[in-house]
Amino acid sequence: MITWAEFKNYTLDKKINVLYECGTFVMAIRYYNYKINLYLLGRNYVEVFVNHKYASIEKIALLDTNHSRMKFYSDQIKLPRGIV
Q1: What domain range is 46 assigned to?
Q2: Three-state SS for 62?
Q3: Burial grade of 49 (CB within 10 A; 0-12, 13-18, 19 or more)
Q4: Looking at residue 57, which CATH number applies to its domain?
Q5: Strand, coil or helix: 77
Q6: What pairs with residue 47 in β-bridges?
Q7: Which one-letter DSSP state was computed for residue 79?
Q8: 82 lies in some domain
Q9: How many domains are contained in the chain?
Q10: What is the pTM of this model?
């Protein structure tokens, strides 16, 4: 299993490959200028920020459970206890 400590040090291209090969897509939300895809990678939820105007991935980050975006996720799916 890939840990977040390992994953965060990968290049953007390698992160994308690992997510598509080893991650599980959970859902997507629209947030300002982004489509954010939520993936489960091991025990970590990871957000992929896609700039839909430029069709490019700009950032991949660990889900910040304290961010206001959480309401968009929790409105649509039930995340495990401790995530919300």
Answers
A1: 4-76
A2: strand
A3: middle
A4: 3.30.67
A5: coil
A6: 38, 61
A7: P
A8: no
A9: 1
A10: 0.85
